[in-house]
Amino acid sequence: MAFVDLQVIDVKNVIPRCTKYGVQIREFHSFRFRITYGLSRHSRLIIKKATTNIIANITSLITFIQIAIHHHDYHSGSLMCRYYVYIYASSYGISISTLTLLAIDRYYAIIRPLSPFYRIYRRQFLITCEIGIWILSLLIHIPTFFYMSVHRQDTLLCDFPDITNSVSAYLISFVLIDNILPSSIISITYGRIIIHQNNYVQPGQMGRNQLQNDINKRQLTKMLGTISFFYVITTIPTSFVFLGSAITQKSLLKIRQDSLVAFLLIFFSISVTASISTINPFLYLAFDKKLSKKALTRLGAIRNFIYEKTISTRAVFNNSGQTPTAAST
């Protein structure tokens, strides 16, 4: 049995050092808190948005692997279709809604920075909206479990097999909530921001800090605006597809039977929209180099912190005459 020989240790010398070791543990938790929350609110929102994209990509990969290695009957194919569409649609809803929230935050930060609401309730507003976005996105897409399925003659085609009036109403609502409304808010907001930045003249002469803040704001706005632009552009084809299906009440299988060209165009449109979750991480790295450098710097700081505290802990035991490894009998 392994134990520490207490008679070898100088208790008067070790107790203060153990107290110091406990303080170091507390310092590490404090350091970890600063690392986690040291990023700006925009960076944290972007990271949360990227998380939903990663979830969507993993879901797509698992689905494709399942299709490749297993033969699915009608029931297993329908179940896989429903889970895939629900997770992917919820992820997309969270992403586009987060971009809308970031656009609104940019609007207040640049055009109305002195607004009492923005200055006093900014943090509470962002947190409440973040929670609301996740809850609403998860709830709004629940009907896909009831409406989505595969066809008995084609267990790989995920579709709305029977488009009734209720399904048409849901498709129209889906397009309005997940596509038209956020795309309109994003376009109008960034349009006003661009006009404001082009026409605004700073009174007096800006100092170095003011000039750097202005540059940072413009870079952040450019990054978020570019990512939002990609989202808006890629959602347009899919919006037309869903609206067309809702109006004509034709399933994808019916469209494929009537016109293979139309089916391929629809398939291409949906693929373009789905690909944005794969492109997003590269957009973040391309436009938010500052965030990437900051993340790498902080990871290096964590590594150095752990190394320094490990050396310090070993010194505690060495100075007391006892090695960190317990003596064996």
UniProtKB/TrEMBL annotation:
GO terms for biological process: G protein-coupled receptor signaling pathway. The keyword Transmembrane applies. GO terms for cellular component: membrane. It comes from Trichoplax adhaerens (Trichoplax reptans). The keyword DNA-binding does not apply. Belongs to the G-protein coupled receptor 1 family. It is found in: Membrane. This is G-protein coupled receptors family 1 profile domain-containing protein. It is a multi-pass membrane protein. Pfam families: 7tm_1. Residues 45-284 form the G-protein coupled receptors family 1 profile domain. GO terms for molecular function: G protein-coupled receptor activity. The chain crosses the membrane at residues 50-71, 83-104, 125-147, 167-190, 227-248, 260-287. CDD domains: 7tm_classA_rhodopsin-like (cd00637). Its main location: membrane. PROSITE patterns: G_PROTEIN_RECEP_F1_1, G_PROTEIN_RECEP_F1_2. Keywords: G-protein coupled receptor, Membrane, Receptor, Transducer, Transmembrane, Transmembrane helix.
